[in-house]
Amino acid sequence: MKPLRIILAGLGVRGRHWAEVISRSPCCEIAAYADPNLAARDRMAAQYGARPAFDTPEAALEAVPDAGALLLANPPVGRLDQVEAAVRRNIPLLVEKPLALDVHEAAEMVARAEHAAVPLMVGLNFRYLAVTKATQRLLAEATVGQPEFARFTYERYRDGNRPDLNKYPLTMDQPMLWEQSIHHFDLLRYVYGRTPLTVQCVTWNPSWSMYASDANVAALFTFEGGLVVNYQGTWQSGWAEPHFEWRTDCTNGIITQRHQFGELFYAERTAAALTRVELPPHEQWITETQGLLDAFVDTVVDHQPLQCSGADHLWSLAMVQACIVSAREGRCVSIASLLPERAGDSEHIL
Cβ distance 177 to 217 under 8 Å? Predict the structure, then answer.
């Protein structure tokens, strides 16, 4: 079988993860690079081999007729034209989250891809962590009963001026929500398998923040079935040491994850100590990205059902936009009310 030839657009931090994963895959190869930054293109060629290189994904699609997929690891601005260029050529798409910075624009991308029957997958790599699958299994088996409330805490001092980090979040609106919380909201939906209903949210920027817009978020979500989730996410913590905990309180005990890439435990209500869940070895940013790529190849090559679909992603985008509206207007917001009419009527696919 010929390898799937992928145009890789966006050669920053995340693009380098993708280049590493594609280069290791026996099923895929990089067909071309696309990035307006010449230095980034040169660095990628030096590390992963020379390829045709272009300023834009559209130019790459025009010049590489045998490309089998387009992977957008670039900033989430101006993607509608890029998606349209791929759809016109019947080229499957794997797009890093968030699909867009507006749920209506994202819905337009989804509609165009669906109309042309072109797969559009969103790069939600945290779904493919072993700890995520293990948490789902604990819940499915009711190891400590049924979930009723949860606390999700992600606290970080993200130095946006570091040379190894993308710079565009420094000036974007609500960078924590769009760039980081979107992952967390997707995990809440995916792991609990429930539709989000409402949110009450505040966002703020501490006095020391280097970000132009609010970098910190606190939100209270309700999900179908009465599940309540208390969320706090910060990119401008007062301490450089990161902290993560996702604790789910269930009818007979708790499930708690102590690191965003692992450290999973559970305990029955009267247990004196936590029980560790053993997880397989993990190479950070690579193992779960490989899982995402494998799922994409399964769809494109073997015609398996699409995972992490653009249509499903609209719900997580609506959670972000509902948080923004709630913070701005100081009220509880219905998440479904932020979805375009067609998306709100569609199946809540997980």
Answer: yes
- The HSE-up count of residue 315 (CA atoms within 13 Å, CB side) is 25
One CATH from 3.40.30.10, 3.40.50.10610, 3.30.360.10, 1.20.120.1730 for 127-280+317-338: 3.30.360.10
HSE-up (13 A, CA, CB side) for residue 26:
1
Q: Which helix (H) or strand (E) holds 109?
A: helix 103-115
Q: What is the DSSP secondary structure assignment for residue 65, as one 8-state letter?
A: T
Query: Start-end ranges of CATH 3.30.360.10 in the chain?
Result: 127-280+317-338
332: number of Cβ within 10 Å: 14
**pLDDT tens readout for residues 193-238:** 999 999 999 999 999 999 999 999 999 999 999 999 999 999 999 9
Confirm if 160 and 211 have CB atoms less than 8 A apart.
yes
CATH 3.40.50.720, the chain: domain bounds = 4-125+287-309
DSSP SS3 for 245: strand
Token look-up 């794997």 returns 94
Mean pLDDT for 42-63 is 98
350 pLDDT band, cuts 50/70/90, is: low
Q: Specify the pLDDT at position 166.
A: 86
Q: Is the pLDDT of residue 114 over 80?
A: yes
Tell me which fold the domain 4-125+287-309 belongs to: Rossmann fold (3.40.50)
* 65, 40 Cβ separation under 8 angstroms: no
Residue 302, both tokens: 């073997």
* Least confident span in 129-143, 161-175, 225-239: 161-175
Dist CA 73 CA 344 (whole Å): 27
